[in-house]
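Hi U.,

Before I forget, here's the chain from the pilot set. I'm dumping it here mostly so it's searchable later in email.
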Amino acid sequence: MKVNRDVIRKLSIELYRSGAISFGSYRLRSGRVSPYYIDLRVLVSKPELLRISARLMLDMINNIFPMPTKLCGIPMTGVVLASAISVLGGLPGIYIRKEPSIYRDIIKKAEASGLECLERLKGMLGGLRGKAHGVSRLVDGVIEDNDRVLIVDDVITTGETKLETVEILEEESRRMGISIDILGVAVLIDREEGGFEELSKRGLRLYRVIGVREIIDILSTEGLIGRDTAEKIYRYLEGVLGERQA
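Structure:
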């Protein structure tokens, strides 16, 4: 896909000016300590930045074949982006329910106790979901047989949350007795920390608008961050790559 570099440059600068990307020392969900942080929750308060982001993602999605029939947003910023893309491009959307992580932790511990115990526990947790939400389902919106689903999120780091979303979609389609095709994952920003490789292991494509190295290149060239800050981030990314190859 041919991308308008001027728009990418504008996006990178506006992400910085809006505070969506900041620099310091931040502990990530993966446990790593990163010299930068990306928080795109600010998009909901920045309509022009949201419009630019959604337009870039829609242009990318329009080049995917076969085209998705549903966009699945990951709460919360992924839902905001998917909704904006849906309005711009007329693509229907769905979204997964944000399940408490305790559900996943309990299920992981139960796996060691055997299949029967695990299935009984999943049934119990499904009942709890139903009591909490009124209907025992994992996906909101209309999901149909033979849907081609594209998962949408703001950022990818290790890919863990995206793979959890795949599992939820597969579980819900089995519960409904339908068949869906998960085309892959579309994100605005790739932190370039192994998410692409993890998705590839599952046979899933990653579609990204921009990688973090390019953002840092632009901010450094524009004089918005010092060269020392840029070099620190490049070293961090090289270190992550080294860890994965070890």
